[in-house]
Write a structure and sequence with these properties.
Layout lengths: L6 E6 L6 H10 L5 E7 L13 H14 L8 E5 L5 H11 L5 E3 L3 H9 L3 E3 L11 H10 L9 H9 L2 H9 L15
Parallel strand pairs: 1-2, 1-4, 2-3, 4-5
Bound molecules: nicotinamide-adenine-dinucleotide (NAD).
Length: 187
């Protein structure tokens, strides 16, 4: 059945929302009429891998989409907490979102779960994944290297507004740091 509005879902953690995410949204919007942005791991914040709250991530995304003129095409930004049961996750996502026809994700586990749940999966193209990656941006924040050039200005405003770089540095003093250097052996 062809719905009047073809709607996609892009699920991600957006820790933080970066220019690669923005490009992937632009590219998906060439394929669908509307796109739901699902903020995954919504319950997690204040860790090295997930420093920002769902509300902070939502603000980064909604203000960037508004300023880029894309907000009307992405009418729903929905926090989705993780579920401690992968087999039930797709129904959990569906229960929190409006109807969608295609789930877009680069995450192999999420791809498998959607396919097993009978949902069509779109694999978004990657844009300069070495630079535009949440892991790289958080590493740069921690080290004091340039991270601002990798994110939209709206993400910079949110990070500065919550003193996000200081937050990550404080967390790093209470968590084992697991960033690898080129040439390091895997832990
Ligand atoms: P992410 O923020 O790393 O990525 C979000 C999306 O953006 C992905 O599709 C990724 O491919 C894309 N992307 C990232 N960088 C890009 C770039 N440079 N160019 C183009 N696209 C780029 O988020 P993620 O880790 O993939 O999010 C998956 C979410 O699904 C997590 O929150 C995870 O916990 C959740 N999940 C939960 C369960 C469960 O609760 N049982 C199961 C599976 C997945």
């Amino acid at each position: 059945m062809r719905w009047l509005v073809m709607r996609g879902l892009l699920i991600g953690r957006y820790q933080p929302f970066h220019k690669g995410h923005l490009e992937v949204i632009r590219s998906i919007l060439k394929e669908v009429d509307d796109l739901i942005i699902g903020i995954g791991s919504a319950q997690i914040s204040h860790t090295l891998d997930n420093p920002f709250t769902a509300g902070e991530r939502m603000t980064m995304i909604s203000s960037a989409l508004r300023d880029e003129g894309l907000a009307g095409r992405c009418p729903f930004i929905i926090p989705i907490p993780d579920l401690w049961n992968n087999a039930l996750w797709v129904n959990h996502v569906k229960s929190l979102t409006p109807r969608f026809e295609v789930a877009y994700t680069g995450n192999p586990l999420a791809q498998r779960l959607f396919r097993e749940g009978g949902v069509e999966v779109g694999v978004p193209p990657l844009f300069d994944r070495v630079k535009f990656s949440g892991t790289e941006i958080r590493r740069r924040m921690l080290r004091g290297d340039d991270w601002e050039s990798l994110v939209p200005v709206q993400t910079i405003a949110v990070v500065k507004g919550v003193r996000g770089v200081e937050r990550i540095r404080d967390i790093s003093r209470s968590e084992k740091i697991t960033f690898l250097e080129p040439g390091d052996a895997s832990p």
